[in-house]
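Feature request disguised as a bug report, sorry. It would help if multi-protein outputs had a clear separator. Right now it looks like this:
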Amino acid sequence: MSRSRAAVAGLLLAAVAGCGGTASDGDERLEVLVSSYPLQYVVEEVGGAQVTVANLTPPGGDTHGLEPAPRDVAALGEADLVVHLSGGMQPAVDQALAQERPDHLVDAASVADRGADPHFWLDPLRLAALGEQVADELAEVDPEHAADYAARGERLTRSLQELDREYADTLAPCRGATLVAAHEAFGYLTERYGLRQVGVAGLDPHVEPPPSRLRDAAEAVQETGARTIFFEAAAGSSVAEVLAADLGLATDVLHPIERVTADETYPELMAANLTALRRGLTCG
């Protein structure tokens, strides 16, 4: 086994061990590397038993701050398929891919168009579009199982379309409502379902907002009748709680589905988000 191929195997073994599974000799599944959890979810759903997926970002890890180790960089060039979102969410991975270009790469930037905001997966229809691209690329790598990838891709699309309908129906009375978020990560979601996002801390949840930003958020609350400030549990609630206390508002958790633990899943987190939105938005 070459050193680079061993790097891929090492990452995959670590990923499997982290999930409580085992790997066996002679495994002919495709080796797929991804750089964040939403991409992992898509590949696992579409690839099924024909793929083994390793995520460069460990469960609960900081997606933005990921710094690939040398073996990770080598593994990117040797994987059967890499699925990544370019454009600045993970600049170190962008640089690594420039050094070690894989033969097969799906860049999720093709379904994302909001510039600095990477959270396209909060729009289920955009995630479905990525699933179709992954199915096509897996079929290119592994034509023998093309029909399987196509069928699973279609199944994923149907489930995400159903999720979209559930969101649209549930949030229909809330169209035009203001979503006040401590972390401005919900642009795709608010655009899809006719909401308005006001971010207290901008895109980076770790940057302390300046007083002017707090004043703008307070004015938006007063003008729109918003009653809840949503915060990301992984980033903490201090800013949201201070502003909520000043304005007499409630706080609630809204998950950007970015820092995800090993026992959390995309469908479960999206369902929890919808419940929080219906509970916390000011709807007609």
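(second protein starts here, but nothing in the output says so)
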Amino acid sequence: MKVIFLFGPQAVGKMTIGEILSKDLELPLLFNHMTLDVIAPFLGWTKKTFELSNQLRKDIFHEVIAQKDNKGLIFTFVWAHDHKEDCEEVERFKRIFTDSGIDVLFVELETTLKERLRRNQSENRLAKKPSKRNVKHSEEELLTSNQKHRLNSLPGEIKEPYYYRLDVTNISAEEAARKIISENQLYLKTGCSE
């Protein structure tokens, strides 16, 4: 089973790159707004929305493991590295897999704020994420979180055995997916318990 945690700031390209990886690796993609946008219309953007979203994700992870014919999954999320609760939640997500003998490949994406603001308005993002269609609000949220939190890790901060960081500022989503696959062959071929 192969499990990829694809993370980085808002509008860095996680979902778009994840879609290409999903197709190329034949792994289902769970991008972060798939769970959030189901709950938010009923509860708004409240603490409970995020709690329920995280619980749903955990339930999905457990079921993926339980069904032995599953190949794994790709999961995208934003990680505030300076926020203790975020770090603890990522660790809980990871432990669901590692406690079952399944290693996780952590892939971190980064780009400039200018490029993220441009990508925030991309057609694919707006089509797949209803809550981002109010572009003005989405941009304000992006800028606020960029000021409040550290959304990329510091050098050497992530100690995972399978970790890859990629600057996607000047490359296409297709090129990024190719690099992720080519630079992580050890994991993709042998790194995970079957």
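Even a blank line would do. Unrelated, but nice: The first strand starts at residue 2 and ends at 7.
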